[in-house]
Amino acid sequence: QVQLVESGGGLVQPGESLRLSCAASGLIFSIDAMGWYRQAPGKQRELVAAITSDGSTNYADSVKGRFTISRDNAKNTVYLQMNSLKPEDTAVYYCHARIRSVGRPGLYNYWGQGTQVTVSS
User: What are the counts of helices (DSSP H) followed by strands (DSSP E) for the chain?
Assistant: First the structure.
């Protein structure tokens, strides 16, 4: 069984920073891509940033230059450094990973439980 556990959300003022973390645990053989999605009230879930196992990244246009995704493969952990936060960044942020489990062929999608990020003055 595999779990993704997120941490780091909270309430901040516009212009401030937050760092999200997501640790994968369980019977993990290998992790392919990892990423962060977000969903604001009344909107569809959208990709924020993603990173491959070799470190290639891609970002939503709305966060380029402000957010940075990184990962620590030894810790099975992905991070999202969010700077210059704006009210429109307010959403529930979800961690995602494509994981091969021990004893189970194939890659499967796993999601974290979500962490609330609120940007407000």
Answer: 0, 11
Alpha helices, DSSP H, located in the chain:
none
Pairing of the two strands 18-26 and 28-39 = unpaired
Per-residue DSSP letter, 15:
T
Residue 47 has pLDDT above 90, yes or no: yes
Indicate the DSSP class of residue 27: S
What's CA 49's distance to the chain center, in Å? Answer: 7
CA–CA separation, 66 vs 81, rounded Å? 8
Query: Cα 16–64–95 angle (5° rounding)?
Result: 75
**b/e per residue 76-102 (b: at least 16 CB within 10 A):** bbbbbebeebeeebbbbbbbbbbbbbe
Angstrom distance (rounded) from CA 1 to CA 42: 32
Q: Read off the pLDDT of each residue in 96-112 and give the average, rounded to a whole number.
A: 95
